[in-house]
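Appendix B.2, paired examples.
Example (i):
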Amino acid sequence: MGGGAIAVGERGSFLQEDRTSHTRQTPRQMNGGLLLVTSLAAGATAGAVAKTVIAPLDRAKIRFQTSDIPYSTRAAVQFLVTSARTEGVMALWRGNSATMARIVPYAAIQFAAHEQWKKVFGVDSPQAAKEHPIRFLIVGSLAGVTSQSATYPLDLARARMAVSPKSEYGSLRVVFIKVARDEGIRTLYRGYPATILGVIPYAGVSFFTYDLLKRWYTEYFGSPAVGLTNILLGGCAGALAQTASYPLDIVRRRMQTARRNADSSYPCPNMAQTLAHIYRVEGWRGFFKGLSMNWVKGPIAVGVSFATYDFTRTLLRNFTFNVNSS
């Protein structure tokens, strides 16, 4: 369902660790507002860089998600090679502008929403989260719903650009104009119910599993997980969450990219009919088409995201310290 959820949860833990490290190492401390701003800026940058790196893999995945063509690694590679030969190498990044426009507000909104929902449900401390795991699961789901609802039209635009030639949708602006003019404003939220139903298990399972794994690690080894261990725990949580929600991700993409009939209706007008069509044509395997691509690009995205986040956060905070000191 989008890889934002687990990354935000991980950034929250690093923010706490960062506060501790600065307290030990730096006599001049930053206030909470600056900590939040630099974390959000670093997180948005990390998300943008990671999404750009894996954009070609994302385009290949969406191509197979939105068609009846059987998926295989060989077929995915062939699609990328053919696209680069016929449309140019930059065609592999088609739709990435919509991804960039979405990932920055998405990451910021999800991070802020997760913190606020934790306060609302009274699980804004490790002890409270441990005592009320179901509440923590709900909080993760609500954070995902909040950010997806705010940025959904950008996700639809990204999907349309990823599966269409440049002559049809030359830019993000053209997508919005054509969809609104030809199909109506409501179409910008076509597939939204499937997305929200998918986000609930994805965000909930990812936040919940990541927090649970970190707690188990701390209890077993006597110290909190850091660095590479956090990446591995986050990867496990993300893989489990993606698998749980993937069939609804397939439905979302099919509905986002569906072409209208001559009478202005859609071949599969709702989620139930889309589910039935996929099962009838492709069987149960159709609901997991491209999932292995997610398992490949997921660790790449997480690794790039963490490396970029740490570098950017350190750079921003050092700059802020220097400005405050001068």
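Example (ii):
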Amino acid sequence: MASSYSYPELFLAGFIFTLPFLYEKSNVFRYYLKFFLYYAYVLITCTILLPVVLLYPRDVTNLIVASRFCRYASHIVGIEWELKGMEHWDNEQCYIVISNHQSSLDILGMFEMWPRMKRCTVVAKRPLMFAGAFGFGAWLSGLVFIDRLKTEKARKLMKEATEKVIQNKTKLWIFPEGARFNKGSIQPFKKGAFYLAIDAQIPIMPVVFSQYYFLDNETKTFEPGKVVITTLPPISTKGMTRNDLEYLSDMAREQMIEVFNESSKDLVKQKKIAV
């Protein structure tokens, strides 16, 4: 009697049956699968939410709506977030928010924070604007996309964004390291965020993500883990001039490094004990 199953169906069935084995035994497979599920979930959620955010184009409060649904991606990839210092967020105050940048997973931590941050938008690289429904939804939610290669245009966009921050009592989130770096330290800061804060006399709000000890891009490791996100007290720029730029940048980075090391220490220690 001839088999009622075709070769593609048999191949698919075999692949599905081997998935649990691959997930358990191969850290490379687990790494790529988790990122795929993360991106797929956020992309699908953004697509579904497009009709909602279209009602209020370029409104940063759309990010609060998106975060309530997108934050569940953290459960899918096995990341737990702990928020500290959220009492420092004042919804009636505008800030230039700066944070360390370790991975695209940072956005999941921000999804946890948005309901409390309220009116907060982000400076992002222009290529993300063309990332399908995610990019379009992000643009509709008021994200500021800049092309770092076009310096003059980027400065103009940042200045316009800062003016809107003041006018609407919004927060502008910037990653001053300029690129993702997950090597257990905080890289030197670019000065753009500090120029904006000093020129507009807006406080700097430092936010620190603890080390992603569970993630290693070189070995393709992505295990379950916990991240502590600490919001530090805002740093006033009242009375500062551009002569204070280096002082402000160094002071903010030193504070953030201290908190980064302290918040990461116990988490890394727990990992070593578990191993």
